[in-house]
Amino acid sequence: MDKKDIYEHLAEIYLDASSKRKKRRKAKPNIFQWLFFSSLLFVLVIGITLFYNLGRIKPYSSEIALVLLNDAAKINFHFDPAKKEIYKLDLNKLNLSRFKALAFSVKNANYQNPVSLRVEFTNIFKEKSEVYIKDLPNKWRDYRINLSQFKGIGYWSEMQALTFTIEEWNAREKKGVVYIDNVRLLR
Predict the structure, then answer these.
(1) Sign of dihedral through CA atoms 172, 175, 181, 185?
(2) Model pLDDT for residues 76-111, shown as the tens digit of each residue
(3) Cα–Cα distance measured from residue 187 to residue 177, given in angstroms and rounded to the nearest whole number
(4) What is the C-alpha separation between 127 and 40, in angstroms, rounded?
């Protein structure tokens, strides 16, 4: 072997080794590029999804409420001697002129007994007005009644009572239980 052959052989080894190094160097940036672009795509998809769903999400609506009854009340009716069962909340001359609605939850214990509930306000001048809720469900259901539906009351500044009544003629069966919970006035 002469010098020329040795140089060619060394150049060949050197050039092959250097090209393999370049190939290895190119492989690593491809993995990093792939990770970068896939993470960028992931963030972009999440961002678009959140942006799209922001229009669909309803903001938390806060209500100013005066809670009249926060524990469940039970109206256990039995219409043999009585003609109606009443649950009464004493309002003690409460000023309701700034409130707009009455809200509460109701549940009928017997799903086979359709029952109607009479909701009645009374003020200090003995003005009374009622609203009926028909066919109470056997699962908890929220009701909201605008105070403007209580037409018989003109003076809301000094209220005397709020009553929930089950009447014999508004129930198919003579016995049953109705639960009332979370009674509140809303502004």
Answers:
(1) positive
(2) 676 677 677 778 888 888 888 888 888 888 888 877
(3) 30
(4) 68
CA distance 163 to 130: 9
What does each C-alpha distance from 7 to 14, 20, 61 come to in angstroms?
10, 20, 83
If we measure between CA atoms, which residue out of 118, 180, 125 comes closest to residue 153? Answer: 125
pLDDT at site 49 = 78
Give 146's strand partners. 101
pLDDT of 28 reads 56
Three-class DSSP labels, 60-88:
CCCCCEEEEECCCEEEEEECCCCCEEEEE
CB 37 within 8 A of CB 45: no
In the chain, domain spans? 1-61, 65-186
- Using DSSP's 3-state secondary structure scheme, residue 109 falls into coil
Distance CA 52, CA 31 (A): 31
For the domain 65-186, what is the CATH code? 2.60.120.430
Those residues whose C-beta lies under 8 Å from the C-beta of residue 5, and which sit 6 or more positions away, are none
